[in-house]
Specification:
The protein has one domain. With 82 residues, it is of the alpha+beta class. The protein contains 3 helices and 5 strands; from the N terminus they run E-E-H-H-H-E-E-E. Helix 1 runs antiparallel to helix 2. The N and C termini lie close together (7 Å).
């Protein structure tokens, strides 16, 4: 799966150092190491490239599982699953 937005799979940089970008395989390993209850939100953050505020704004009405789409409120962006 490729990032659909700039910044997907990225980590916040340490001051004065470049962004560290996780590969999809590395992201999957990081997510697998999390408690089961936390995996969905972190998976959404990694694979859709969402920031904290965007994650907090998500509601079930923004998720269309049948179409494989996620509407990110306030951005005018629709993320389609691949």
């Amino acid at each position: 799966m490729r990032p659909t937005r700039p910044g997907a799979y990225s980590f916040r940089p340490v001051r004065g150092k470049p962004y560290r970008i996780a590969t999809p395989a590395a992201a999957a390993k990081l997510i697998a190491a999390l408690p089961v209850a936390d995996r969905a939100v972190w998976g959404t953050a990694f694979y859709a490239g969402l920031r904290l505020g965007e994650l907090r704004a998500l509601r079930w009405k923004d998720v269309n599982i049948a179409a494989g789409k996620l509407h990110v409120p306030g951005t005018g962006t629709h993320t389609k699953a691949k």
